Amino acid sequence: MRILLVEDEPQVVEFLKKGLNEKGYETEVAYDGHMGERLALKGDFGLIILDVILPNINGYELCKRIREKGIQVPVLMLTALGTTDDKVSGFDAGADDYLVKPFEFAELLARIKALTKRSSGLIQTSKVLIVADLTLDLNKKSATRRDKRIELTGKEFELLEFLMNNIGRVLSRVEIAEKVWDITFDTGTNVVDVYISILRKKIDRDFEEKLIQTKFGLGYYIDEP
Ligand code: CA
Question: What is the helix (H) or strand (E) element at residue 212, kind and residue range?
């Protein structure tokens, strides 16, 4: 089984890698949140061990992001923060278990076994977002309106997914740029407006009922007509 290790402290990484490899687990390491997200989204891991305090994207946010993409791999949070609030944040973000540093390696192994046993019996549930007659299948990465299949590029898909995950909520350009493009908004770019207009062409143009809405001066949202 392959384990993704997202941890920025080299000593902890070495300790975990060595111990896990000895127990027959293959490991891949990400030293920051961005790299962790990229590797996690490839989705070929049996387990993710995730530190909370990381450069770029923290562990809670990273966990949330991969869950939003429909990735169901068990996540074990590993952190020096051990208050009840921290644990609740971890579980809210979609973590399956929580281990507070410092910990015994044997304890980690026991948690790994429990988590991977649980997940092997798990049936991958389909994740589908629906707004009116528009359907977005997150597993198949496909979009359809009524019976018409809509071809979307990666970023168009992500933007539509973000809108559909927040049905009825006005999303500012800043929020959208950060979420979909991972960029802090620069007033010189109109990337969000450009992509919204592309989505409108693909989703709304051929239909009388328009789903993507503009809230003037505030942003965009999707809703049932
Ligand atoms: Ca850390």
Answer: strand 212-215
Cα of 55 from ligand 1 centre, angstroms: 8
- Span from the CA of 81 to the centroid of ligand 1 (angstroms): 10
Residues 6+ apart with CB under 8 A from 71: 40, 41, 43
Neighbours of 48 (CB within 10 A): 26
CB 6 within 8 A of CB 54: yes
Ligand 1 centroid vs 205 CA: distance in angstroms?
47
Q: What is the pLDDT of residues 7-24, one digit of tens each?
A: 999 999 999 999 999 999
In the chain, what are the domains?
Answer: 2-121 (3.40.50.2300), 123-222 (1.10.10.10)
Q: Quick one: CA torsion of 161, 73, 87, 24, rounded to 10 degrees?
A: -150
Cα(106) to centroid of ligand 1, in Å? 21
Q: What is the pLDDT of residue 125?
A: 53
pTM: 0.54
